[in-house]
Amino acid sequence: MINKTTDCLIIIDVQNDFCPGGALEVPAGDEVVPVINQLVDGFSHRILTQDWHPAGHHSFASAHAGKSPFETVELDYGTQVLWPDHCIQDSFGAEFHAGLDTTGAELIIRKGFRPAIDSYSAFTENDQTTPTGLSGYLANRGFRRLFLAGLATDYCVAWSALDARREGFEVVLIEDACRAIDMNGSRQAAIDQMDDAGVVRICTADL
Ligand code: VGL
Ligand code: ZN
Q: Which of 6, 13, 71, 81 has its CA 20 to 30 A from that of 126?
């Protein structure tokens, strides 16, 4: 049962660049759109996240001479996967998928806008210290249980789920409303980490 007061649906990064044909396409990423649209009416509160990078962002392989997308590099804050240029501020690729029902969303949290720090999680940037402010917002609004959907299961969704647990929220991953990049077993590794952290996994049919 969804609690109208204390539950919140967080829709992660359903943006053109993560859908087929996009710069960092998640296989079948667009398939989450109808699944999420069916879910939204069941929740009284919805939040969207939007990957939002300046051109030349440090997470882009193009910003590192001699590096190709999907290689890694050591940054001040640790190992960073290098991505194709994606979700550049104000570009078409950064827009939400045109079919996504965004109408009732109460907050859009943008992340990854600092040129030198990536941010997979909706809560904390990849340096593990810079907060986005989301946990304060959610606590202030009285939300206690977060349902997560979107892209990509093994990066932005998983990192958000794990941070949400660290911040003390109950977390429910709606598995069929997510799709993964899945590089070198990254999907299963993320699922295992979420299980260990006490993230509950369900399907839309369970709601
Ligand atoms: C994402 C890689 C880089 C995601 C964002 O939304 O999962 N992944 N930026
Ligand atoms: Zn990104």
A: 6
Which ligand ends up closest to the CA of 54?
Answer: 2
- Residue 38's alpha-carbon distances to 14, 99, 140, 165, 190, in angstroms, are 15, 12, 27, 26, 25
Among 187, 189, 157, smallest CA distance to 173 is for 157
Active site annotation includes 67: no
pTM: 0.97
Smallest CA separation from ligand 1 atom 6, residue: 156
Q: Is 127 known to be catalytic?
A: no
If you write DSSP's letter for every residue of 102-114 in order, what string do you get? -TT-SEEEEE--S
163 assigned to active site: no
Q: What confidence tens digit (pLDDT) does each residue in 134-172 have?
A: 999 999 999 999 999 999 999 999 999 999 999 999 999
- CA–CA separation, 49 vs 205, rounded Å? 24
Residue 71 confidence (pLDDT): 96
200 CA to centre of ligand 2 in angstroms:
25
Is the CB–ligand 1 distance for residue 155 below 6 Å? yes
Q: Tally Cβ neighbours within 10 Å of residue 149.
A: 25
Low-confidence ranges of the chain (pLDDT < 70): none
User: Quick check: bond before 152 cis, omega within 30?
Assistant: yes
Helix axes 186-196, 158-166, angle to 10 degrees: 20
